[in-house]
Fold:
Amino acid sequence: MNPVNKNVLILGLGAIGSNVGMTLSSWSDDLVIHGLDHDTVERRNIYTQAYPARVIGKAKPVAFGAELIYKFGMAPKGKFHYVHFDKFAGKGRDFDLIVDCFDNWESRRLAFEFSGKTNLLRLGFDFVNEKPVASALWNREVEDTKSLKTVVDLCDLREWSWWIKAVSGIFTGLIVDFISTGAKRNILIWDSLKISEI
Structure:
């Protein structure tokens, strides 16, 4: 698979989506990144997300586009939507890959339905024995991912911000592998950054 004009939609531009999206945007000028989120940047977001203090109060899709210009001197090629997902007018078939970074089960269910036959990568975090674990699962229904029982609000995990950013880098690598070779790996990433295939 060639990255030229590949359209990737990131659902949720929070701790996972903003970091993955920013790193992915710097990987290839030919990749077209799109994003969707209905939230604004809060002060507590700046520790775990890819937003600096200067964009506090802005809609996350607007802030993400502004950071691309600030960091890389390039305007986003894709579109960034400030809207609730259930009001989004796009179609799953418009994209080559959909990356679900939502932090609630209802949105994840809608993302699965929306994706249709488009490849869907679901990225998430949970806690096992009071330590964080991250998961990357391809084309799985919401019910299949509830083995990780909770949905974690990463904004309050300031002490784990280094780990969240490292995991986001690993997630980006999975996406790059898929775009480059078509490979799909289902993995868990533990607090030590050890990776388990599942």
Remarks:
- The domain at 7-197 is CATH 3.40.50.720 (Rossmann fold).
- The helical segments are 15-27, 60-72, 105-115, 161-181.
- Strands lie at 7-11, 32-37, 80-82, 97-100, 119-128, 131-138, 187-189, 195-197.
- The chain has one domain: 7-197.
